[in-house]
Amino acid sequence: MELGFDAVTILIGVVVFLARVADVSMGTMRTISIVQGRTKLAFILGFFEVSMWLVVISAVVNQILTKPILGVFYALGFSTGNVVGIIIERRLAFGHMALRIITQAKAKQMTEEIRSAGYAVTTFQGEGLLGPVTMLYVVCRRKDLNHVIGIARKTEPDAFYTTEQECSVSKVYRSCVQQEMPWPAVPKKK
Fold first, then answer.
1. Which helix (H) or strand (E) segment is 57 a member of?
2. pTM score, two decimals?
């Protein structure tokens, strides 16, 4: 039995690999879309994912016994597609997150910093192991989460925080904070 290392088989294998990466990436994003309740996106991704899978599997199944190397390309494409799908989804960062920050010392300053960056903050007073604490509650777009955490850590590096994916959010308040111009305003000529 030959393994199928001729140029045509390798070319077919590369096409199978790339197509499998694409369809599994779509499948990964479709699954995440389903979890987040994005039905239209899940429908579209599902349609293209299965269409591509049918084409790929029909090319491989007929030749797998005579050219087992195609099975390796197929498997590598599947594994790579999972990773690529996760990377794409992280970059797109769909959805909203709830951020809870527990602070003892700098609650007022942290609240002001986060609000001045344009995010709504609700605060709650509580009792921690070492005494009074303040919990800051922020709901933001997932793509903004690292920015808000960065503000909190800059204000108080040891602040404790948790995050949670939000399935549905009625409103996310985000104000447009105007930045001060670094140069004086130039009057318009009439």
1. helix 39-61
2. 0.64
Same domain, 59 and 102: no
Q: Tell me how many domains the chain contains.
A: 2
Q: How far is Cα of residue 136 from the mean position of the Cα atoms in its chain?
A: 23
Question: What are the b/e assignments for 158-175, b being 16+ CB within 10 Å?
Answer: ebebebeeeeeeeeeeee
Cα–Cα distance between 145 and 13 in angstroms, integer?
40
How far apart (Å, rounded) are the C-alpha atoms in residues 12 and 60? 9
- 84 and 106 share one domain: no
pLDDT tens for each residue of the chain, 190 residues long = 455 578 888 998 999 999 999 999 999 889 988 888 889 999 999 999 999 999 888 888 888 888 889 899 999 999 999 999 999 988 888 778 899 999 988 899 999 999 999 999 999 999 988 899 999 999 998 889 999 999 999 999 988 999 988 766 666 666 554 444 444 444 445 4
- Do 117 and 145 contact (CB within 8 A), yes or no? no
